[in-house]
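User: Hello, beginner here. Can you help me understand these amino acid letters and fold codes? It all follows right here:
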Amino acid sequence: MIFTEPANHRPESQVADAILFFGGDQVKLTLRTRILFVLLIVFTLLGATAYIIHSRILLPSFLELEQQHVSANIKRVINALKNEQQHLAQLGNDWSVRNDTYAYLDDHNTAYETSNLADSTFIINQINLFYLLDSSGQKVWGKAFAEDFVTPITLQPFDLDRFPADFPLLQYRQEQLPLSQQQSTGLLMTSVGPMFCTARPILDSSGQSPSRGTLIMGRLLSQEMIKKIARLTDCVFEVKTDLDQTSTVASWTQQGKPDLLHINYSAKETTISASATLTDLTGKPAIEIAVHEPRAILKQGLKALRIALTLMVTGFAFALGMMLLMLQRSVITPIRQLSGSILAQDKANHSAPILKMGACTSLEICLLTEGFNQLLENLDAKNTELGETNIILIEEAKKLKDAKHRLKRLDQLKSEFISTAAHELRTPVASIMGFTELLSDHEMFGSFTEDQKTDFLQEIYENCEGLTKIVDDILDISRIEAGRSIPLDKKPTSIKVLLQKILKRFDLKASHLLVLDIKPGVPESLNFDAHRIGQVMVNLLSNALKYSPEESTVTIIVEQENSHCKITVNDQGIGMTVEQKIHIFDKFYRADASNTAVRGLGLGMSIVKQIVEDHGGTIWVDSSLGEGTQVYFTLPARQDS
């Protein structure tokens, strides 16, 4: 922007309204008008932005907070109901493992009924239903009372003398769990309303005896229970039971555990509501819990928004006035003075300074602008440099965090390994020392028969073999840790002959059925290290036998797949979890690191994986908890020695 003057001198009073030239176009606007116009635009945009932020961000946040609040309340109610259900399950568990209850199912002792099954029992334990069934589902004893725990009632669907096997509360029998852990607990719709029910097998106090029947307890979802939960949760809610219940007892099936189906929200002008549907033992909708609350949060939010907008408008108006005042004193007046000085110099025939300020209004502003531009360029360069450095630091921090996590995990595994190794070494060493001490005692030595001495020496030899295996595993894992391959002596060898020798060795001690299934098409010989592959098979078979029940079948399948020979070890054992499958080949990893677990250092599968991969093969595991484990590994059908 350049200040110009016409051929004739203008009075100083007109300098403030100097004509501004932009690209040759004459615009008759004073600087004050321009700045005022810009400020109005800026404040308008800021006001619009603030309004959008309040209406599109803050207001939805209040709505979300309101929904979270009512959702938290309904979840508290549901958790309180589940606590009642768990309390009932614990009560049923206490009664189901009593020796006198266990004996009553066999001898029907009336003294037990008098002392334990009196009507006062229902009041003391706050239960409405108590049934004892024998193993066939026949009712041995049972009563049902109304909500007052005093009035006897006939309660459907419990008005049966014999309960069918598909009755919802008897579905626990289908669970593949120890008897002491089997139970059915949840909601069940009855003729007088929803009832929390629990069923458990009747055992003696040890929990290991065969079950003699089933104990069933029930507690009605009464108004008193609802009032109690309302007091505990400080929530007002209602329970609806008139849901779709068209099924009959004969068609009930175990479709899932009772659980929360979904949470629905609805909002009116003055209230917000949330409702959740709970299923019964058959997986059908049983009850609906509804919580209604006034929209106090939204009202407070709207009030806060109105106050904020009012204060913002007031602040904008005040700021605009202050800025105009400062503009007048700090910009307009100095420019007028500067213009007057320039005109005074011209009248005095002094050479007027050539002020090429561009779009600026004064030299100082131009200099300040240039300084700021230079500063911003420097800052941008520094920010770019800092940004790159920050990215590098973030990546390094991430690497350090990952390394720290790996070191922590490795330290934990090695600590477990040291503990396990000490335990594993202590056992054979103690056995060797014990038998050696017996054989070294001259007085006792003569009292042993030759067979006993042979057995002692055999025990010492087997424990020495165990120690040798532990040392070999540690040496192998140290080679792997050092990044070296396990030494191999590959020769053409019959995989069939090798597996038959190993199975013959295991047949002498194992109480399992070992089956070798060699499919057609398997080559007569493969090029591998017989000792190391034997080590692989011994490790896999040992694991299969350790984690499989006695008399179960362990199958070894050998088959040709493309250019590889695949060997499968299939057991019917306890199986593995997903977590165990992920870490099965990790060094030092054991699924159960306690001293009471199956013996082992947690090195075997890591060594097995290294041996198979050094042969050019692959190994993987397929397992499901409670359904057994299948370990597969492959060897190249043809490979150079």
In short: The chain has a mean pLDDT of 79.
